[in-house]
Amino acid sequence: MSPAHSPAILQLAFRTPYANTLRIPPLPLSLPLHQQIDRCVMCGICSQHCPTYALSPNENESPRGRLALIAAINQGQLTPSTPLFEHLDHCLGCRACERACPSQVPFGEIMDQARDLLEPHRPGGQHLGKRIGHALLGHRRILRTALTGLRWAQKAGLSKAAGGIPPIPANPKWQRYYPPRGKTRGKVGLFLGCINETLGQDELRAAIRLLTCAGYGVHVPPQQTCCGAMHQHNGNIHAATGLAKQNLRAFENLQIEAILHTASGCTVMLQEYNKRVKSPPAQANAAAEFSAKTQDISHFLDTVQWPEHVQFSPLPVRVAVHSPCSLKHVLQQTAAPVRLLGNIPGIEPVELPDNGHCCGGAGSYMLTQPERAARLREDKLDALHRTQADILVTSNIGCALHLQAGLRERGREIEVLHPVTLLARQLTL
Fold first, then answer.
1. Predicted confidence (pLDDT) per residue in 275-296, tens digit
2. Does 313 fall in a domain?
3. Would you list the DSSP string of 154-194?
4. How many domains does the chain have?
5. Can you tell me the distance from the alpha carbon of 349 to that of 253, in angstroms, rounded to the nearest whole number?
6. Digit-coded pLDDT (tens) for 120-129
7. Is 309 domain-assigned?
């Protein structure tokens, strides 16, 4: 019997009050992922790195506990019940466990497939907010219309929900191509994202400015759409794959050396299109090429040799650098933003203490699990206070919005920026 299906680990699942007393047909995972679950050797190293286990030291709130629950569902030994969904829903998807796992269990991929498999069996059906979110994020025009309506509601003071997020700017207008300034070094593509396109447009414009000053032409394909991460992590892999294929078509005819984005969470999804699109062969090849070209904007700019005419004005302030889970645990590029900010004379970048734990933003987590998200955020804000920093930078739009909201609640007037936004501000051109 394999380790993940041994009686020892399955009794983790059976310590719950919802073990199935009636035999039900199993909900089979694909054979490759079924085999990946078997790689878990119950060492427990993952639990030391899991934010939800730190909040509640219940084995079912740990990565190996969740694997045991999924394995039991897979064998027809547990029924999809409300308490079981709660344990799976509490997972942030931060993938800290995956990075720490000595057996290299692909926890994120297992969770995505399990949620996709289980979502149709959720008691009471999928959360209404998730259904609305999926519909909006997958249709750029509808999302833009919704954000415009929310923007006017904010201005009129008619919406309490709108008051929970920063002022929404007008929907941006983008050129298809931004030519380089000076000598051409190459051409890149810029991925806009969905929510990020509007709420994160400052960093997108900053990225364009920095790239063109460095000698890169920037393509912005108008046919691009949501990366699909929200759909995939919330149990709709089919929709995520459809969005991935649309983005592949949007970028397919561009002669570019890199595809760049300013939100590290979306960048991870883009880098893993090769796992999502595997047929037909032509699209699978396109997905592999797309994934290989995708980079986080700070990582790309950190490799740039700046032309002599590009100068940055001094900024003698302390800047706390927050590392999103996607940047730290998956992309593993946390040093890039710090080095990038080092181009600014006089600046003092300091890493936010305990950067290894999730801030609680985690995509839609801050909306679907607000109490848990707020508890995780408190530790980050306490750490920020201890740094005595004047500015906080983070490389992911979801983390930025979540941390901004927490600072507003505390009455703290600390600016939250993307690293490229701060760097572009100091550009003297």
1. 989 888 999 999 999 999 999 9
2. no
3. HHHT--TTGGGSPPPPPPP---SEEPPSSS--EEEEE---S
4. 4
5. 39
6. 888 876 665 5
7. no
